[in-house]
Amino acid sequence: MNSVALRNIVWLGTITGMRSMAGPAALAVARGGIAARIASLFAAGEFVGDKTSFVGNRTDAVPLAGRAVMGALVGGVIAHEEREPVLVRAVIGATTAFIAAHLAFQVRTRLLGANVAGGLVEDALVTAAAAAYVRSRA
C-alpha cells in the first residue's frame, strides 16, 4: 500500500467528515480547472449553510451518509490516480469521514459550542488543512 496515498485519503477523509465538500474541493483545487471552481463554490456554500438552523447535525443519517459518500469519492479518486485498489481505498475514505464527523461533532458541541463562533473555528481548521493538502500537491 502506498503510504502517501493512504495519508492523503485519511487527510481529506477527515476534513470531509467535518465539512462534506472540503475534501472534494481540496482535491479539485489541487488539480485545477473548472471542477476546482465549482467544488470551491459548493464548499463555500456549505461553510455558510453550516451556521444556519436549517442544517441538522452532521451525525444525522442523511448528512452522515453524504459525508461518507464524499469520503468514498475522495478515496476512490486518489486510489485511481495512484493505480491502487479503488474499492478498498474508497471504503477507507468513507470510514475516515464517518469517524471524523462523529469526533468533530463531539468536539464542536462540547468544547467549541454549537454556535456560530464554534463553526468559524472549525471552518478555520478545515480551511487550513485543505490549504495544506493543496500546497503539498504543488
Shape: globular
Query: How many distinct helices?
Result: 6
* Mean of pLDDT: 90
- Strand segment count: 0
Series of H and E elements: HHHHHH
Largest sheet: none
Provide the structure class: mainly alpha
Number of domains: 1
> Spans with pLDDT under 50 lasting ≥5 residues?
none
Query: Percentage of helical residues?
Result: over 70%
Q: Provide the gyration radius in Å.
A: 14 Å
Beta content? under 5%
Task: State the end-to-end CA separation.
Answer: 23 Å
Q: Which characteristics define this entry?
A:
single chain; 138 residues; mainly alpha
Give a topology summary.
Layout: H1 3-18, H2 22-31, H3 34-49, H4 61-81, H5 86-112, H6 116-137
Helix pairs in contact: 1-2, 1-4, 1-5, 1-6, 2-3, 2-6, 4-5, 5-6
Describe this structure in words.
The two termini are 23 Å apart. The mean pLDDT is 90. The chain is mainly alpha-helical and 138 residues long. It has one domain (3-137). It is built from six helices and no strands.
